[in-house]
Amino acid sequence: MKTRFPAIIISSLILFCFSCPAWALDGEPYIHDPSTITLCNGKFYTFGTGQGGLISEDGWTWHSGAVRPGGGVAPDIIHIGDRYYVTYAEGGGGLAGGHASNVHVMWTRTLDPSSPDFGFQDNVIVASSDGIEDCDAIDSAFLLDPTDGRLWLTYGTYFGNIRIIELDPKSGKRIPDNQALDIAIDMEATALMYRDGWYYLLGTHGTCCDGANSTYNIRVARSKKITGPYIDNMGRDALKGGGKLVVAASGRYVGPGHFGLLDLGDGVQKFSCHYEADLDRSGRSVLDIRPLLWKDGWPVAGDNLKEGTYEIQSERSGYALELTVDFVRMTGGMRGWGPPKEPVKPIPFQELAEVLPDWPTGNIETRLGDYMMRPHQKWTITPVAGAGGYPGSPYFKITIAGTDRALAATADAEVVTVPAFTGDPEQLWRIDQLIDGTFRIMPKVVPNASEPLALTAAGHSTPTLARFDPDSDKGRWNFKTP
Predict the structure, then answer these.
(1) pLDDT (tens digit, 9 = 90+) per residue, 401-434?
(2) Whether residue 188 is found in the same domain as residue 120
(3) How far is CA 233 from CA 44, 113, 155, 359, in A?
């Protein structure tokens, strides 16, 4: 976090706009410099600059309540064994704070302030800057290397270098005689993650703390070694200002910064950040959670699904989810291929009113079929107010466009449509974008099921509910605008 308005001129800064998120998180997600979101005893936690942070029961609705001592700026969290380590910095940031700062690490056995096991211990300083050297020791973040179990911490801001040090994962303290290494410049609020033999350094470029005028954006470089060098997609070293864009301002949201990985497993990865200004919330800084996609070995910001009407297309077969009803032919057959003898005019789409009277009034089963732009193949996705959600998104109802006929899970782990949406949990759907850009579709509840199940193409024409297989196209779906 920069607490100054730096007069840094960044040549060739391109604010490449991705599609805006569907909506901001529910509740009161007001926070600046959020830490990586961490799950503890069934609740999600994130800490921010200043005192405290946010708690969520489901990852969608957020409220204040997280507690940590020390105050300071830009904390981070990591869970290792039976401990939750928290890092934060005191001092620094420029202006009145100068650039003299200390990075702290402490731990607790739980993040729940109401638990008897709650209480931070062993608050130690692991890195410092004296205000003169070419570094500002704030904005620290952890990575536990999955390849060897070593614990690392990055820190630093636009004032000088981003640095990395090694910590002891059993204590959170700095490894004796470990020397800090410079790995980047012209960024802050860094985070590290590992994937497929690469270490990725994500950092926030641009200016902060100026509301709707902030130019924060998140960029990335990668390395085969955790200590660097970190190189972007154009071969530029992060030590020379390199970084490939991941996400920038879009829609009504300005200045994304402070990347945090949220890996939900089964090919679902998301990331947290804050926006310097949500223009729909008085320009205040808010938390958000976005899908994380991967393209050609690089992370890309995805989007939570927006409300609208779609074809739901199977990645396995390319067929569309539809009602099991009789196919109704459109007027006219083969029109020939020579020059027309009558005036050319458009043929209207088949309308719902033309076919609805012939549909059964009770439950109607579903199937997969060739997409023909017909009413029984068009689905409206609508967020359900007050139904809760999951990380980054609310639950949805999925209805046939123009009707209240709703997709529902059955006790036999099948999918049907019921005549009207009632709000029952088997009619609420979780829709997560996977790392390849396709989607996983899961009912909130499957009656009598002992594990989560997802919409699955059991065959080319047979939808069902089954355990999601991240290595198969059976449970992957696309939402196409009809």
Answers:
(1) 999 999 999 999 999 999 999 999 999 999 999 9
(2) yes
(3) 34, 43, 23, 54
